[in-house]
Specification:
Layout (H helix, E strand, L loop, with lengths): L3 E4 L2 E4 L4 E7 L9 E6 L6 E6 L6 E2 L7 E6 L4 E6 L8 E9 L2 E4 L3 E6 L1
Parallel strand pairs: 2-11
Antiparallel strand pairs: 1-3, 3-8, 4-5, 4-9, 5-6, 7-8, 9-10, 9-11
Length: about 120
């Protein structure tokens, strides 16, 4: 059963940092771009960051300079380091990948930033 499992969310004060982790159950994901999405209450899910196997990562304008995405192929994992967090970063964060035409989503992890 192929799945993505996230961890690392929590409650943090504005200006603080959190690091999210996403671990894939299959090494097949090493050939796929990995994405981080987030969804705030009452808002649509938005793409936050994408990391590829060999190219530079992409970021939403709202998080550029504050978030860094990375991956560890040996651990089948992708990470999202979030610094200088703002109240508007509060959301459920999801790890996502597309593999062989199927979309795989993690269960989501809540990030709450208090102002």
């Amino acid at each position: 059963h192929v799945q993505l499992v996230e961890s690392g969310g929590g409650l943090v004060q504005a200006g603080g940092s959190l690091r999210l982790s996403c671990t894939a159950s299959s090494t097949a994901f090493t050939r796929s771009p990995m994405n981080w999405y987030r969804q705030a209450p009452g808002k649509q899910r938005e793409l936050v960051a994408t990391i590829y196997s060999g190219a530079f990562p992409n970021y939403a304008d709202s998080v550029k300079g504050r978030f860094t995405v990375s991956r560890d192929f040996a651990k089948n994992s992708v990470y999202l380091q979030m610094n200088s967090l703002k109240a508007e970063d509060t959301a459920v964060y999801y790890c996502h990948a597309q593999l062989d035409g199927y979309d795989y989503w993690g269960q989501g992890t809540q990030v709450t930033v208090s102002s």
